[in-house]
Amino acid sequence: MPATAWDRLERDIVTCKRCPRLIEHCREIARVKRRSYRDEAYWGRPVPGFGDRSAHILFLGLAPGAHGANRTGRMFTGDSSGAWLYAALHRAALTDRPASVSRDDGLRLEGAYISNVCRCAPPSNKPIRDELQNCRPFLDREFDALRRLRVVVALGKIAWDEALRRARSLSPVSFPKPAPAFGHGAETVLALRRRRPPLALLGSYHPSRQNTQTGRLTRSMFDAVVRRAVRLADAA
Predict the structure, then answer these.
(1) Phi, psi dihedral angles at 30 (to 5 degrees)
(2) Theoretical Cys-Cys bridge with 51: which of 78, 109, 119, 197, CB 3.0 to 4.6 Å?
(3) Domains of the chain: which residue ranges?
(4) Which residues lie below 8 Å from residue 99, measured CB to CB, with a gap of 6+?
(5) In sequence order, what are the residues at sequence separation of 6 or more whose Cβ sits closer than 8 angstroms to the Cβ of residue 169?
(6) Which of 126, 142, 131 is nearest to 17 (CA)?
């Protein structure tokens, strides 16, 4: 997709007002702020995807963190989930530094792109069905634009289900039955782009604090999925 089309996509995301509940929630968080960030200007809007537009790997999460991406304006930036993700990407040589702090920190992704199925921070981190549906056109446009994509890593079951939804809508006849089940390390191959080869879909527990602090997701578990994604991308 030409740069102007990418710019148009990002503009359409940032200016989207399809979900009044989410827009109000993002603005309220930006107004009240967390005490530790009281001197910062919050983004407080829908957050566009971020990364290498020639990426072979897409990391797909749920939604911006209230005081992470909703504050910084960049996917998985400024909170503990982002710290986990970017550290793992750095260990896999997919980024030039181990931490993502702000939109202006100069961090670059090499061969990877990061997005979410919901572009606004939802209350209790739980977007409702209609809100996910309203965001789908943006994700569809990203899938079509990432022409060199080979692997999708779904960070959590909702991201996994959204990938299945897209595959089912594009190729209902060839969609596998039963549908591939989500799990950490789950792997399948699906038609996720129009008139292009199928992609590998990998599942991972989301690097949320709830998962990382309880030990449900460990560093070695997460690294294993990222390394698998790199191997599949290199072999394709």
Answers:
(1) -65, -30
(2) 109
(3) 3-235
(4) 83, 86, 87, 107
(5) none
(6) 131
Say which residue the tokens 């129009």 belong to. Answer: 194
- Going by their DSSP bridges, the two strands 151-155 and 199-204 should be labelled as parallel
Helix, strand, or coil (residue 225): helix
Distance of alpha carbon 68 from the chain centroid: 13
Class of domain 3-235: alpha beta
Residue with tokens 């209350």: 123
CA angle 201, 82, 117 (to 5 degrees): 45
Cβ atoms of residues 63 and 92 within 8 Å = no
pLDDT value of position 1? 62
- Rounded to whole angstroms, the Cα distance separating 236 from 88 reads 22
- Annotate 48-74 with DSSP letters as a single string: --EE-TT-SEEEEES---TTTHHHHSS
- 155, two tokens: 């960070």
Q: pTM score, two decimals?
A: 0.96
Cα gap 156→150, rounded to integer Å: 19
Instruction: Return per-residue pLDDT of the chain as tens, 236 residues.
Output: 667 889 999 999 999 999 999 999 999 999 999 999 999 999 999 999 999 999 999 999 999 999 999 999 999 999 999 999 999 999 999 999 999 999 999 999 999 999 999 999 999 999 999 999 999 999 999 999 999 999 999 999 999 999 999 999 999 998 999 999 999 999 999 999 988 899 999 999 999 999 999 999 999 999 999 999 999 999 97
- C-alpha 24/C-alpha 203 separation (Å) is 32
